[in-house]
Amino acid sequence: MATQKKQNNNGWFKRHPLHVAVSFVLASHLLPAYGQEVDSTQDQAEQQVEERSGQIEQITVTATKQSSNMQKVPLSVNALTNETLEDLNIQGFEDYINFLPTVSYLSYSPGLAQIYMRGISSGGDGIHSGSQPSVAVYLDEQPITTINNVLDVHVYDVARIETLAGPQGTLYGASSQAGTMRIITNQPDNTYFDAGFDVQAKTIKEGGTGYTFEGFVNVPINDAAALRVVAWYDKEPGYIDNVYSERLFAASGIRINNADLVEEDFNEINTEGLRALLKIDLNENWSVTPGITVQNSDSTGVWSHNPDKQGDLKTGSFNDEFTDDEWYQGTLTVNGKIGDLDVVYAGAIMDRDYYNETDYSAYAEYMEDLYAEYGYYCLYYDDMYNCINPNQYISSDEAFSKQSHEIRFSSPQDERFRWIAGVFYQKQEHDFDLRWVVPEYPTTEDYTPIVGEPVVWVTDQLRTDKDMAVFGEVSYDITEKLTVTGGLRFYELENSLLGYYGNNGSDYCAAQPCLDYPNLDKETDESGSTWKANASYEVTDDALVYVTYSKGFRPGGTNRALTGTVAPSYKQDFVYNHEFGWKTSWMDNRLRFNGAAYFMRWDDFQYAFLDYQVSPITLITNVGQSETLGFEFDTAFAATPDLMLNFSGSYNDATLQEDYYQTIDDREAGVISAPKGTKMPLVPEWKLTGSARYHMEVAGLPAYMQLAASFTGASWNLLETDWRTEQDAYTLLNFSAGFEHEDGWNMEFFINNITDERAQVHIPWSYGVDNPEYTTTPRKMGIRFGWRY
Questions:
Q1: Contact 356, 323 (CB under 8 A)
Q2: For a Cys-Cys bond, which of 491, 635, 665, 774 suits 762, CB 3.0-4.6 Å?
Q3: Could you tell me which of 543, 628, 586 has the C-alpha nearest to residue 119?
Q4: DSSP 492
Q5: What is the pLDDT of residue 52?
Q6: CA atoms within 13 A on the CB side of 103
């Protein structure tokens, strides 16, 4: 019996997504009567469109866990502000990731992606029991970094998205070895009432149609409390066709087709969610902000096509493919003062349930080809020893939980000597049940590890990671212009794997039921420290230069090999960063030019590979060293009061610094998998973004036009030179135009991916049978209507 799709328990959300959003907007006319009276004069004044000064806006960031002017922060920070996010019509991961010039990425589907910064990528991340990410991700104050993918948080009513390039290990800890990305939401405010909504209709070239409903409301409850609620529902249309295809399994001679699964535009996704924050001022010094974010995403199909085999935006799947992704995060933030010290507590509990079924028939075709080559005539047999159809799929039932707690203290930031210090604790568990299902496989105990189910292999394990740390940074103004900063973090790490993996062979299953007899029970622990040294000099009020020498780390872990098998744990890997940067403003703050040049050394980096000499699964080992030489820049130019230009980018030359041998036998035989000098995978040398926004007046209404572009250079998909493929460079071009009305409503028309580019986001190795290419959304056109109270 095939694994059944997990049921969605959030039924009310599924039935009433629009009710949620509309209710919060309609409440804008009712709730003020139950809260404090709003100063209508002030409210109207805040909504007036100020005359543009022709200067660049000042951006406030919290990269150093203190609110600061971005131009005064001596580290490489890039920020997409609330205004920029709205201007670019950004709603999800694919939208914003292309406009973060310091970030590269790999994506398989919504909610299943990894991100990289500054060339710190080996191409071996994303394994359930493997390496943790090299870039940490935060939602407000709390980390949401998961072991093998990035949460696809819907972006609405978001203050900004910050990227902090380079190691951030002292303040942000594990997995911040290459950088940190932070999604900062708008917070409740008890001084005014605010509400709004946006609706959008969209269509994709040669694809389907979709729509989006989003709404928010900020309600002052009284002089000491406010509630902010955001809700969204997004139906993203499909554009990949599952076309008629056939597979021939060479050894058995069995031929199958997918006639009953043929469907146009079958990669649809529906996302709905809610975020609520309640801020309560206990007194003039202390406030608490509990919050909850809930998001459910249901998708069907795949986000890859096979242009060489099936055609443009076409693929051939032989099994149902779908994903249910449900998660929530409960948070509590406490802000206060003890004497003249600022105190912050940030705690969170996150839970994610992820269920996925993926076609795996290409593997069966590959194995049958091998069997035929060696004279075998069957891959799988029934209990009468007859050949059966080897067509198969993988079911993934995963439960991810995470809790984090941080408390930190900081001295007044206007003093000559200032500091920040804190403690941090995090525990995350990943309970994953992966099953390789062959529908015609025998379900008796002599064959399957799960009696009653046609399973040829199962991986059912619980992974636990713990991280405990104390950290601090101190800064001292040697002169009014020269400041030095030092940071240090001491940490302890624990990693364990408990469970079962394998088939029903004697080497795996001690007795039935196999899952009741774990063959994997391993743990490891490590400790260490990371540090940062920085010196900054304020040349003028509009020019700052700095130098940084910093270290970042990523935890080690336990290899998923049978207990007693020779497969040692993999160790921490470290990044050492040497950086020179600058922050400058020119022409009376009409021109901003920031940048950094850096040299990064990545020691003993972790890499995942298949080693059948030890165990027929993916193992992780510490390989060697890579180096990145690069620079990044961010410019903004107010050419006129009505024309704003932005241009940013990064360059990374990341190379392997010693020969890589996959196994000990390969080393003894002189078989090199990747020679010294090999370009590191998933690292485009260039990534550039730019935009031009022009304001004007049409029919007496303020109006605008905007053109935005992003360029991603060519990159390699794997490290091993005999297997890898170069992924082509691509450019995405977006256009939008709209106008606003003084009554608070606005309308916009947009075209994303004007040239209908087929980006090669990722080309995985698919057993040499298929040639899938993960791509971005084709040309998408739409219209958006919004209103603000």
A1: yes
A2: 774
A3: 628
A4: E
A5: 56
A6: 30
Q: Contact at 8 Å (CB) between 504 and 436? A: no
CA distance readout (Å), 50 to 42, 88, 278, 640: 14, 21, 30, 15
Q: What are the sequence ranges of the domains in the chain? A: 11-788
Closest CA to 457 of 465, 468, 449: 449
Q: How far, CA to CA in Å, does 310 sit from each of 296, 304, 769?
A: 32, 11, 13
Predicted local distance difference test score (pLDDT) of residue 511: 82
Rg (CA), the chain: 27
**Cα 699 from chain centroid (whole Å):** 42
- Measured CA to CA, the distance from residue 611 to residue 251 in angstroms comes to 25
CA distance 779 to 469: 47
What CATH number was assigned to the domain covering residues 11-788?
2.40.170.20
pLDDT at position 347 is 97
DSSP H helices, 48-172, are 82-87, 93-97, 169-172
Tokens 């948070």: give the residue: 331
CA distance 84 to 78: 12
Whose tokens are 């600061």? That residue is 68
Check: CB of residue 285 under 8 Å from CB of residue 227.
no
The number of C-alpha atoms within 13 Å of 179 and in the hemisphere containing its C-beta is: 25
Distance spanning both ends of the chain, measured CA to CA: 55
Report how many helices (DSSP H) and strands (DSSP E) the chain contains, helices first.
8, 41
- 773 burial via Cβ count (<10 Å: 0-12, 13-18, 19+): buried
Residue length of the chain: 789
Distances (CA, A) of 278 to 111, 159, 192, 230, 489: 27, 17, 14, 12, 32
Place of tokens 């080996």: 122
User: What percent of the chain stands above pLDDT 70?
Assistant: 91
d(CA 322, CA 331): 30
Burial 621-659 (b: 16+ CB within 10 A, else e): bbbbebbbebbbbbbbbbeeeeebbbbbbbbbebbbeee
CB-CB contact of 392 with 360 (8 Å): yes
Could you tell me which of 750, 761, 757, 762 has the C-alpha nearest to residue 778? 757
Contact between 518 and 500 (Cβ < 8 Å): yes
Residue type for position 398? E
Q: How would you class 41 by CB atoms within 10 Å of its CB: exposed for 0-12, middle for 13-18, buried for 19 or more?
A: exposed
- DSSP-assigned letter for residue 261: G
Question: What six digits make up the tokens of 789?
Answer: 């109270």
In this prediction, residue 750 carries a pLDDT of: 96
C-alpha to C-alpha distance for 423 and 409, rounded to whole angstroms: 9
Residues 8/10/16/19 CA torsion (nearest 10 deg):
-150
The torsion of the CA quartet 370, 374, 375, 380, rounded to 10 degrees, works out to -40
Spans in the chain with pLDDT lower than 70: 1-53, 124, 126, 148, 506-507, 562-566, 611-616
Average pLDDT of the chain, as a whole number: 89
CA distance 643 to 323: 43
Place of tokens 């040669």: 206
Q: Kindly write down the DSSP assignment for every residue of 171-231, as one continuous string.
A: HH-TT-SSEEEEEEEPPP-TT--EEEEEEEEEEETTS-EEEEEEEEEEEEEETTEEEEEEE
Residue 598 in contact with residue 118, Cβ under 8 Å? yes
Distance CA 134, CA 117 (A): 8
The tokens for 733 are 């071009």
Instruction: Tell me how far apart the alpha carbons of residues 655 and 676 are, in angstroms, rounded to a whole number.
Output: 8
Question: Global pTM?
Answer: 0.89
Residue with tokens 């010094």: 285
DSSP 643-682: EEEEEEEEEEEEEE-S-B-SSHHHHHHT--SB-TTPBPTT
- Give me the DSSP letters along 389-434: ----EEEEEEEEEEEEEEEEEE--TTSSEEEEEEEEEEEEEEEEEE
Question: CA–CA separation, 24 vs 145, rounded Å?
Answer: 30
Distances (CA, A) of 771 to 19, 368, 548: 43, 18, 43
